[in-house]
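Morning. Coffee machine broken again, so started the prediction first thing and wrote up yesterday's gels while waiting. Chain of 117 residues, entered below exactly as on the submission form.
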Amino acid sequence: QVRLMESGGGLVQSGGSLRLSCAMSGFPIVAVNMTWIRQAPGKGLEWVSLMEAEGGVTYFPDSVKGRFTMSRDDAKNTLYLQMDSLMDEDTGVYYCATGAPPDFGDWGQGTQVTVSS
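Came back before lunch.
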């Protein structure tokens, strides 16, 4: 059974940084595409980073490109999302999920990120 657990969210000032973690159990993280997805208050889901299983190549939408980076620790079976130069519009609940847009499989419970100006 695959389980995903996010952590690392919190309150940060505009321009600050946070690092989110996604611990995976039940399946090797290197064997599956992984995506970070967020949901801002009153808005729909938006994927913010994707890592391909093969080679660990990452992709980002324009809204976060240059500010977010994604990495993984294969030994810890954990995924990370480093978020820098945070802006108010980055506020939301952040989820990690298996799969790639638009087809996702398992999801974590989410972690809240709040950016205050």
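The chain is about 0% helix and 55% strand. Going to sketch it on the whiteboard this afternoon.
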